[in-house]
Description:
This is Tetratricopeptide repeat protein. Pfam families: TPR_6. It is a single chain. The chain is mainly alpha-helical. Among the domains are: 22-127, Tetratricopeptide repeat domain (Serine Threonine Protein Phosphatase 5, Tetratricopeptide repeat, Alpha Horseshoe); 270-331, no CATH class. The protein has helices at residues 22-34, 38-51, 56-68, 72-85, 90-101, 105-118, 125-134, 147-165, 169-182, 187-199, 203-216, 221-234, 237-248, 255-267, 271-279, 283-286, 290-302, 306-319. Helix 10 runs antiparallel to helix 11 and helix 12 (221-234) packs parallel to helix 14. The longest helix has 19 residues, at 147-165. It is globular and about 60 Å long. Residues 1-19 and 137-145 have low confidence and may be disordered.
Amino acid sequence: MQQVKIKAEGQQTNVIPFIPEGDFYFTKGIEAFQKRKFDISIKWMKKAIEAKPNEALYQCQMSIIYTEIGAYHAANQLLTKVLQSDDYVDCYYLLANNYAHLGLLHDAKKYALSYLDKEPDGDFTEEAESLLDLIDIDDNDEDDWDLEDEDELLIYQETVFHHMENMEWDQALPLIEEMLTLFPEHKLAKHDYTHALFFSGNKSEAVEAELDILKENPNSLYSHTNLALFYYELGQKREYKESIQALLNVYPIHEQQKLKIAVTLSRTAYFEEAYKRFRTLNKAIVKTHPSYFRWYSIAAFHMGEKDKAATIWEEGLKKYPKLDNEQMPWK
Length: 331
């Protein structure tokens, strides 16, 4: 990713004591970032932001670091905050890029178009155009949006994501219902709703709702992953095979979607294919999902890679202690 330029600070004399200010911290943060020492880079960048809290450049660079480590939600929160007080145009492309990685392609398209509209010859013009080429969305879908709504949406997404990843269905369900009341056209939330609905015990209703979504969009990746899982859990083998077959020849460009398929394959005992898919994932991006460690370790175990399975599980436990409440096959 193209990096923002560093502004040089004036020369210091030998008489005046050196007092580090924002640009010094920022420069140190950039140096650490270029060496891929992301933890150190974040520490320096936080100091830079504390020194100059209104400097949009610093916050944008912090968001780029978050993006590099796969913390897309944190990156988006920073960028949205910047845009509420400063129309710093690069934010639009950075948001588009993050949403694309999250699989929220409709949101990604909106921000990419906003960037090109505001900065047709900008530093990220080529990247924004390339991103749009990769996104296949109905161009007639023109729902209204603004930054205040987007900020509220991010809060809902963060909370729902946490509950879904920890399989806390009863806690996720009412939040998704609220989210759909406020953002009825948010497509991914509809799939989350049927998923949480199914595992909360309303199985028939969940299947019917997902089938209705599939009728509107027969190529929906999330409909096929949900239905494959639903039919597997219900023991409906013929329907399950139809849904899983729709996934086996699909290789998405975004890591979140790749993870979704790998998890679905593992959850439905398609362990060999699941294991292959997990091995191709960019760990730096998907490690923010507890489901990565949970279902990758299970797939590895069933492939006879017991030591590897235990290693993956232990790594997941360090990041997500709640996993310890779950019973694994080798215990």
